[in-house]
Prior knowledge:
The protein has helices at about 55-75, 85-95, 100-105, 130-140, 165, 210-225, 240-250, 265-275, 285-300, 340-350, 355-370, 390-405, and strands spanning about 5-10, 15-20, 45-50, 75-80, 110-115, 145-150, 170-175, 190, 200, 230-235, 260-265, 280-285, 305-310, 315-320, 375, 385. The protein is an alpha/beta fold.
Amino acid sequence: MIASASSMQINGLHPIRPMFLLKPASLRPSRIRCAAATSKPSKRYSITLLPGDGIGPEVISVAKNVLILAGFLEGIEFNFQEMPMGGSALDLVGVPLPDETLLAAKKSDAVLLGAIGGYKWDKNEKHLKPETGLLQLREGLEVFANLRPATVLPQLVDASTLKKEVAEGVDVMVVRELTGGIYFGKPRGFGTNEDGEEIGFNTEVYATYEVDRIARVAFETARKRHGKLCSVDKANVLEASMFWRKRVIAVAAEYPDVELSHMYVDNAAMQLVRNPKQFDTIMTNNIFGDILSDEASMITGSIGMLPSASLGSSGPGLFEPIHGSAPDIANQDKANPLATVLSAAMLLKYGLGEENAAKRIENAVLDTLNKGFRTGDIYSAGNKLVGCKEMGEEVLKSVDSQVAAAV
């Protein structure tokens, strides 16, 4: 649904013109006051919202509010179009990724996804699973590079399951290849072997261009961080990994300023919990990246805190929290919206090049945590337990207060 341009209020903020109206259900009275004077936006972007399933609509609603306010304060206006995807699309039109949804995503400047999946659709045939829609979306947008930061914030170091001295100061970026490897390789399917037994099979395959392009993204990312890149593979066993390592070494010649190392995936999984601070930037293939980035997320204390960006050579990027749809807490105001809010910040930074607006959001999240507000997944004694909506309201207050302090 495209919201219409008009005067509006966000959770009690002073009117903003022109803006795009939120659904009434997403509004909640608050005492937030926007200190900035209304002005004509200098930039306009089209954003496709894919709320999805479970807690997806709840966290997307929060992130949308935050985007609108941070954008307004930087002279940016957003045109939001909400489209069905995942289980909600299956219920609505019978497929997990409707053609109309993919077309809208392709035509937009960026895509913000909530979460997809749920118990309701677990027994569906593969082509009718919500997760198939996500793979189709990634392939359709040609977003081959997935950036997943795993940073232990000082405010949440005690929420990590690792000892404080191990978790404190961890700041890792996982660069995962997203549209190749065993998730997409062919041949794949079911059959029988020479003994007549039923089998299932998948193919791990990478072409030169696929490895080279993700390697360049990883080297560029490492160059902007601390200049260290660890390529993770299984080159002692798998031919596809041997080829992966060969191509990474070849591309490394273009980046003499970046320190390159290699590690087998089983060792990398162990080292991530043994000594995570040894890593700066990690690059790896689709399946290893899927697993290692989830492992790295738990070092931070909660998967509910971590955003991600999926980027291609051109066209819109896809931005989403790395957590699932959590159907067991859906519609109970228990979800942590901060991963989606931080995904919105990544959308601004990596998708639109709007670093100032992104920094507003990042600072607001830190400020909100500094004030002691916590959802259930990151709660500890001495802090204030809040729900999804109230956490969103507190982030909005912090976004707004940055301006109030500056004028």
